[in-house]
Amino acid sequence: MKKLNVHKGKRPLFWLQTLIVAITLITVAVVIFFGSQTFRETKKMSTEQFNQQQLILARSAANSINAYFKELVAELSSLANIPEVQQMTPECLKYMQHSCYGFPPRTSIRRLDSNGVLCMIYPFEGWRGKMYGRDYSHKVYFQEVKEKKRISIRRVINEQGEARIRVAVPIYLKNKTEAVKVGDENGIIVSPIDPERPESGRFQGILVGSFDPQMIARNIISLIVSGKTGYAWVLDEDGIFLAHHEKEFIGRNAFEVRKEINPDISYEAVERIQKKMITGEEGVGCYISGWHCNQKGKVEKLVAYTSIHIDNYVFSIAVCAPVSEVEEIIHLTKSSEKYTLIFVILALIIGGLCIFIITYRWSHSLELEVAKQTREIRETSNYLNNLIKHTNSPIIVWNQDKKVTIFNEVFENMSGWTEAEMMNQPLEILFPEESRSDSMQKIETISKGEYWQAVEIPILHKDGNIRVALWNSANIYAEDGTTLLATIVQGIDITERKQAEEELHKRLKELEIYYDATIGREGRIIELKQQVNELLEQLGKEKKYNV
Question: Phi and psi at residue 57, in whole multiples of 5°?
Answer without folding.
Answer: -60, -45
